[in-house]
Amino acid sequence: MQALFQTIDNQDSEAFTQWLTADASFRFGNQPAVQGRDAIREYVQGFFASVQALSHQLERQWTTADGVVCHGQVTYTRHDSTQLTVPFCNVLNMTDGKVHGYLIFADTSALYGG
To answer: Pfam families this protein is in (predicted)?
Structure first.
């Protein structure tokens, strides 16, 4: 999981989407799900552009027969250099070593409000 989260913290949408199956589903918080690697790449590129930086601290993870659940803290740095740190929980459904379903549970409602 560390390597996957490093691609996110590096804001590298290309490297991130290499972890996904071609037909993956991705949902961030209460946003609509995005389908397919290309659409997910475009979505995360837009998100990465909306923040200056982000950094994940993984605290725990659990492996199941068909996936991984992990939680920790994520710090977002806004373009004005202020920061927001919130807890997150991600649920990843895996197929043949790649992420087929990616669910992010985090309250980022204060991210753009300052």
So the answer is: SnoaL_2
